[in-house]
Design brief:
three-stranded antiparallel sheet
Length: about 280
């Protein structure tokens, strides 16, 4: 697999991190208890994580891929904030369960990298919530919570784009078109059609990992994906997922908001929001 494919794999978040070797800038952890200082650290400090995919997949032809057969190595280099955003999306879930557990160890390596750089008395909470009540969403956290209500807590927020275009108020004057637009972006974040197509045409275990992610989405939406995936047509697979999700999202938006314009303003599918809190004393792990 060449370097370009490796980059696409990282962006797609198809693989996860296990037995990672962590490389972090050698400067000491930030000591100032100011959230804006930590926010600057997260957006400017770069970190490289070396890891291998998690290949154990429950309930999906796990016999096709075994950890003993494949020992792949991946390296991801990004700012700490960028890694937090990727880790957040990798944990996308429904109200009942996380979509897959493939990326759990990747999330652990990112959490360790952030904690090593920011030190104690810092809490980082990241979230990707396309809109309130979205069928798919994601959360990720690092660090302890402030223990005492008497602590002076400083807060800062960083928004990291996830690679999909914003939803325009001018473009969507009906709930139906807005619901479809939100559904399409939601699907594109979880399974980007370009990078997943590359994985579908690659060697194992990338093929099985990609098919497993689509299988989980198929189970969630009842979309029929066998035909497009048989021809590696991830664009069509994503279109079918969008069509399956759009009615539910349209109904949700129509129930929650008076007009499409108001609903559009509430949509935040394009970014991961990272909230940083710092304080002086106390805290719980």
């Amino acid at each position: 697999m060449n370097a370009a494919v490796d980059a696409l794999v990282c962006m797609a978040l198809i693989t996860a991190a296990i037995a990672g070797v962590l490389t972090v800038d050698q400067s000491p952890p930030t000591r100032i208890d100011r959230a804006d200082t930590i926010a600057n650290t997260l957006t400017t400090t770069t970190t490289t994580i070396e890891y291998s995919p998690t290949l154990e997949i429950d309930d999906f032809d796990s016999r096709l891929v075994s950890p003993e057969q494949y020992r792949l190595t991946r390296r991801t280099h990004d700012t700490l904030a960028g890694l937090i955003a990727r880790a957040t999306i990798s944990g996308t879930r429904t109200q009942k369960a996380q979509l897959t557990r493939i990326d759990d160890d990747f999330r652990l390596r990112v959490r360790n990298a952030v904690r090593a750089r920011t030190g104690g008395r810092v809490r980082v909470d990241a979230r990707w919530v396309p809109y309130p009540g979205s069928p798919l969403f994601a959360h990720f956290s690092v660090g302890p919570r402030p223990l005492s209500q008497s602590d002076t807590v400083h807060t800062a927020t960083v928004n990291i784009p996830v690679g999909v275009a914003p939803v325009s108020i001018e473009t969507h004057d009906q709930f139906r078109t807005l619901g479809t637009a939100v559904a399409a972006r939601l699907v594109a974040v979880v399974v980007p059609p370009g990078s997943t197509r590359v994985m579908m045409r690659d060697d194992e275990p990338g093929i099985t990992l990609t098919r497993y992610r689509y299988a989980r989405l198929q189970s969630l939406t009842n979309a029929s994906l066998a035909e497009p995936l048989a021809t590696e047509n991830t664009t069509e697979a994503n279109a079918r997922l969008t069509a399956a999700l759009a009615p539910e999202i349209t109904s949700d938006l129509q129930r929650r908001y008076k007009t499409p314009a108001v609903a559009t303003e509430a949509v935040s599918v394009t970014t991961v929001e990272i909230i940083i809190r710092t304080w002086g004393h106390g805290g719980e792990s």
